[in-house]
Amino acid sequence: MSAPLILGLMTFCFLFFGYLGVPVAFSLMAGVFIGAAFTDVTFPAIVQKIFDGMDSEALLAIPFFLLVGELMSSANVVSRITNLSLALVGHVRGGLSQVVTVFSMFFSEMSGSTTADVAVISRALGGPMKKEGYDPPFIAAIIASASTIAALVPPSITAVVYGAVGNVSIAGLFMAGVVPGFMIGFGLMIYCYFFGPIGTRRPRALFRDVAHAFKDASLPLMIPIILLGGILTGWFTPTEAGVVAAIWILAVVIPSLNRRHLKLLPYDFCLAGLIFSLPLITIGAANAFGWLLAYLRGAIVIAEWITGLAGNDPHLIMLLMVLLFTIIGDFIEPVPTIIIFMPLVNVLTTAGNINPVHMGVVLIATLAFGLITPPYGLVLLMASKFVGVRFSQALRAALPIYVVFFGTIAFAIYLPQVVLWLPKHVLPESVGCFKNPSGPGYLCP
Amino acid sequence: MRIAEKLLLQRQRHLKWRALDPLEMILMVLCGLLLFGFSTTVMFDIITREIGHPWLWLQEVTSTFFVYAIFTGAAVATRRNDHLYLTAVAEALHGTPRLVAEIVIRLVVLGVASCLVYFGYINFLRGFSSFRMPSLTPIASLYAAIPISGALIALFTIEQLVNGIRKGFDHPEPPEALLEITPILTVPSSARRP
Fold this sequence. Notes:
The complex is a heterodimer of chains A (about 450) and B (about 190). By secondary structure, chain A is an all-alpha fold. Helices cover about 75% and strands about 0% of the residues of chain A.
């Protein structure tokens, strides 16, 4: 059987089994085993690739970020962050829809997971928004859109996977994701201000109320400082920063804010131990799938097709990549997509002479957008389920919000100097800069 | 509710044998212990490095706990139906089409699990000729996680398959428990509509 036919067969098997209801990890493995049966690759080699995919030190950060998110959800932290967001923007036109966005900007810097964000925001703010008369489809749309910020800003789990698989600086990706992440956040706030429902506006909070809300939320707000501070000063790797953040919650935040929860910590550990294994086993399966795709020259064929159209123009290459990944992201989740298509991304990054961190941020922003597009916008699906509206209604409400994502992705493509400004100044080596041999400072390509 | 009871998921009870409940609970506890284990070893790794006396073997222990935690979690998630899904068309079906779709799903998982057991075992045997540094432990100690996990996945899939064929897959489920998040937002009396 020819390589394109094998590729088609394994992709069909993966999508068919996946959409039928086989777990993603097993449908990927089934696709790979079926595909490998028509090649000279042995099955033990495929099992080895599955194992290799998850045996990476950088991926060790994922359980800790998920543990931090799990502990945050159960440590009575959510209400404090909500109160702070309310004190800051509750008086602005749009009311609770502004609060949702600001809450997500705070919370995503602690959880790193879009699905954790959407679950927490829907449960904390969905009910109150309904009570205040917001249109349920709009509630689902704004919550889902705001939750995508977690894919970009540190400690984004998607960025950890991209960095680990693509051998790109995770700290660099964290830093470069800040600008587009906050662009989405502020873009959503502007959208809600001009085009969203007016909502119930509260009186502007007094300075002392804002200060009080900050004081109340100060312990959990230390988590992003620990994570970023540790990584940026070079004290910790992302994995170690995750451990230190988890220790901070266990030793300080929970005993101070919700002492009664201490006896439930063993349960949190058991649950987090289960939850982290789910993306990791999927990563292993996707690694084998991506490896076979590359072995059958699938990545090279797609790369040649893209460079045939775009030449070596980095902007055009990225635009075509965005187009391709928007379509792929409509069907597959970001983490398996990144792992499966990393060989393709690497070829195109080299062909267009694109900074790997820049390419990473553009792709992660695109895949974050895929989380709210049909037919498989996972985050929008979750939000509509939590809010209790049909997916199609939530989708209609989300359509105008897409403009915020188009703007952010275009900005990220065409203004790399702005996206890479932060990593270049804070972690120059993460974006390929090197120490000036004849003087102080760094030289950047 | 006691932690042990909370660890045992009651969803899709009709597809489960009570005899395997203790196994689910043991695996859940193992997930927690392994996570706690590698959290502790990473912490000690930082401490010993910072004080200038790094314990190199800690990284080996960390990776062992990490790999076993992934495969243990993947196995127990099969029984709890907690895996990540693209979507479940089968759940929208009823009657015979649902039965056929659910059987196909379990057969696919069973096929993959069998491959993990058999070819994972071959890799395990080959792993005795490679060694991990610095302890020189055969890498087979890591590879063993694959066939063990495959066997557990196969066991839980057979459990669902047998019970599903006997009792049917299509049972109404109680609504899932919501996270306990204090709703703090109330409209203050001074709130105004512009």
